[in-house]
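Before any further analysis, backbone shapes were mapped to integers, which produced the following:

***
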Amino acid sequence: MIHIVNGDVVGNKIKQIEGDILVWREMYDFGPLNLTWSKEEQIKKRAHFFEEKLEIPSEFFIQNCQNQDRILNGIAKSEEVILWFEHDRFDQTMLMYLLTELSTKGCENISLISIDQYPV
């Protein structure tokens, strides 16, 4: 079982539950995106953009994207995948990306948990 969450805050809040946690760290609602770019080209262009706009080092951004993709690509078709995303634009764009990737892989066992607040 793998839980895919938006950001470290959610990842830390659910770290005691059963299964592995993949914290997805991307901002698909901000920065350049183009369907004609290869994945590598997209990552490089976005890394350059985030380094200029948010001072996130390109190398850090690229390494993080590669690590996320490596883990996502390692998910077996039959593995249970639980997505933890909220209703806002940031989460919804990330959710669209992940559902597309999981669908392309042929994943068969996907659930969504969407809550509006976590216990303090």
Notes: The longest strand covers residues 2-6. The beta strands are 2-6, 20-24, 80-84, 109-113. The CA atoms of residues 3 and 21 lie 5 Å apart. The chain has one domain: 2-32+59-113.
